[in-house]
Write a structure and sequence with these properties.
The chain has 208 residues and is an alpha+beta fold. It folds into 2 domains: 102 residues, Ribosomal protein S4/S9, N-terminal domain (Ribosomal Protein S4 Delta 41, Chain A, domain 1), CATH 1.10.1050; 86 residues, RNA-binding S4 domain (Structural Genomics Hypothetical 15.5 Kd Protein In mrcA-pckA Intergenic Region, Chain A, Roll). The chain has 9 helices and 5 strands; from the N terminus they run H-H-H-H-H-H-H-E-E-E-H-E-E-H. Helix 3 crosses helix 9 and helix 6 packs across helix 7. The chain has a 5-stranded antiparallel β-sheet, with helices on one face.
């Protein structure tokens, strides 16, 4: 993803909801969005009527920001989802959820997807015993994700083991804090995804 150098909290304010881009800080009352939940800029508090197209575009932008992907890659997920059996919007969310960086985040290895992406690209993980450093790597049911042996002694992962992973791991995943191992036990369904996304609006936008 292209580097975003401005304050991440501005993105939450722009989308009108928390995107959980800064890990634990997003859950605290000190979160800037809690203090000022309006769009940034001089006229951010002035709510204007948004067209249907505008709402669809905002939903797409919000989802891209949640998962940290750019337009070309995001559209690729939509096109792949459209070719799959089932509901296109739900297929697209399933593909996004099964990105390696997102699964690392969901398992509690990282407090945010940004940190998870850094851990993956810095070659801290293996999938089914093989080194994988591609954040967008697609996982499937049965895949096992583990911290590389030579990284387990890292202070970061030692602290993670001591904390016993307080993250609420979704039911389509399993996590063992003692061995720093996670597993994809099933493909995620729409009910398993807690992100507040109106995926049908994105499908409508791309279908035009």
């Amino acid at each position: 993803m292209a580097k975003y150098t401005d304050a991440k909290c501005r993105l939450c304010r722009r989308e009108g909801c928390k995107l959980f881009l800064k890990g634990e800080k997003c859950y605290k009352t000190s979160c800037p969005f809690e203090k000022r939940p309006v769009a940034p800029g001089q006229h951010g508090a002035d709510r204007k009527k948004v067209s249907e197209y505008g709402m669809q575009l905002r939903e797409k932008q919000k989802t891209k920001r949640i998962y940290g992907v750019l337009e070309k890659q995001f559209r690729g997920y939509y096109e792949e989802a459209d070719r799959m059996k089932g509901i296109t919007g739900e297929n697209m969310l399933s593909l996004l959820e099964r990105r390696l960086d997102n699964v690392v985040y969901r398992l509690g290895f990282a407090p945010s997807r940004t940190t998870a992406r850094q851990l993956v690209t810095h070659a801290h993980f293996q999938v089914n015993g093989k080194n994988v450093d591609i954040a967008s790597y697609q996982l499937k049911a049965g895949d096992v994700i583990t911290v590389k042996e030579n990284k387990k002694g890292n202070k970061y992962f030692e602290a993670l083991k001591q904390s016993q992973n307080k993250v609420n791991v979704p039911k389509w995943l399993e996590f063992n804090a003692d061995t720093l191992t996670g597993k994809v036990v099933a493909l995620p369904t729409r009910e398993d995804i807690d992100s507040q996304i109106a995926e049908h609006m994105i499908v409508e936008l791309y279908s035009k």
